[in-house]
């Protein structure tokens, strides 16, 4: 059975990482890894036309609301979302929690993105989508990874765009980047996907989100 035929996304990722490690990360092996990963992602998206249509409609709506601003941002968000639809596993459509997560990640292209309340709104949406996913039993790897991407995208943008203090900027970026870099490094070195960071490891990132949001809210 080829990697493209594996239904379980984690098993497919582990298979790809295992082959990459076995080939000692040679340039040809890296190119093969990227091709096979993209091919599987495209096949998984094609098997979920309803979810793909939802992702497309949501990003078209955001594009209309943004009045054509942030087209590159939205194009990147759509591509990442579409290529990760295989992480929905057994579901063939987005949940309400998934939609809230994608909206949060695209706040920078909306009118509210630069408002004083944008950080508070992002935290509210973050809490709401997690609670909604648990209440409706729609927790999935797609939602978990979309949540990570949404946090990284929005908070990095808000910090670099609106946080004037260099020390706060450096501390915030470090708090958000360290878990991601660590997980990626472990995955590449071991040739298998590690478990997601424990909540205790993410507390510094959550604390920095609160600090940046509060400073942005109170800033004149």
Q: How large, in whole angstroms, is the Cα Rg?
A: 18 Å
What is the element string, with H for helices and E for strands?
Answer: HHHHHHHHH
- Main β-sheet: number of strands, strand sense, barrel status? none
* SS summary, helix count: 9
Helix content: over 70%
Give the DSSP E fraction (strand runs of 2 or more residues).
Answer: under 5%
Cα(first) to Cα(last) distance is: 60 Å
The count of DSSP E runs of length 2 or more, i.e. the number of strands, is 0
Number of domains: 2
What is the overall pLDDT average? 85
Categorize the overall geometry: globular
Would you identify the regions where 5 or more consecutive residues have pLDDT less than 50? none
**Coarse structural class:** mainly alpha
Task: Please tell me about this protein's structure.
The chain has two domains: 1-47; 49-218, no CATH class. The chain is mostly helical and 220 residues long. α3 packs antiparallel against α4 and α5 (96-105) packs parallel to α7 (141-162). It has helices at 9-22, 27-46, 49-65, 71-83, 96-105, 118-135, 141-162, 166-190, 199-218. It is globular and about 55 Å long. The N and C termini lie far apart (60 Å).
Quick tags:
220 residues; mainly alpha; 9 helices; 72% helix; globular
Helices and strands, with pairings:
Elements: H1 9-22, H2 27-46, H3 49-65, H4 71-83, H5 96-105, H6 118-135, H7 141-162, H8 166-190, H9 199-218
Write a short abstract of this structure:
The chain is mostly helical and 220 residues long. It folds into 2 domains: 1-47; 49-218, no CATH class.
């Amino acid at each position: 059975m080829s990697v493209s035929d594996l239904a379980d996304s984690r098993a497919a990722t582990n298979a790809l990482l295992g082959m990459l490690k076995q080939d000692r990360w040679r340039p040809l092996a890296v190119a093969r890894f990227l091709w096979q990963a993209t091919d599987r992602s495209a096949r998984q998206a094609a098997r979920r036309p309803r979810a793909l249509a939802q992702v497309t409609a949501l990003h078209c709506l955001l594009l209309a609301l943004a009045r054509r601003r942030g087209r590159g941002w939205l194009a990147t968000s759509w591509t990442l979302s579409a290529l990760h639809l295989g992480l929905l596993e057994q579901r063939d459509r987005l949940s309400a929690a998934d939609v809230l997560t994608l909206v949060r990640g695209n706040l920078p292209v909306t009118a509210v993105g630069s408002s004083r309340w944008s950080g508070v709104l992002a935290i509210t949406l973050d809490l709401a989508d997690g609670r909604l996913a648990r209440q409706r039993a729609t927790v999935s790897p797609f939602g978990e990874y979309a949540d990570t991407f949404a946090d990284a995208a929005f908070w990095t943008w808000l910090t670099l765009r609106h946080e004037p203090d260099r020390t706060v900027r450096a501390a915030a970026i470090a708090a958000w980047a360290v878990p991601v870099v660590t997980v990626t490094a472990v995955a590449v070195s071991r040739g298998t996907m590690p478990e997601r960071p424990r909540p205790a490891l993410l507390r510094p990132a959550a604390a920095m989100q609160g600090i940046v949001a509060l400073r942005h809210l109170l800033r004149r």
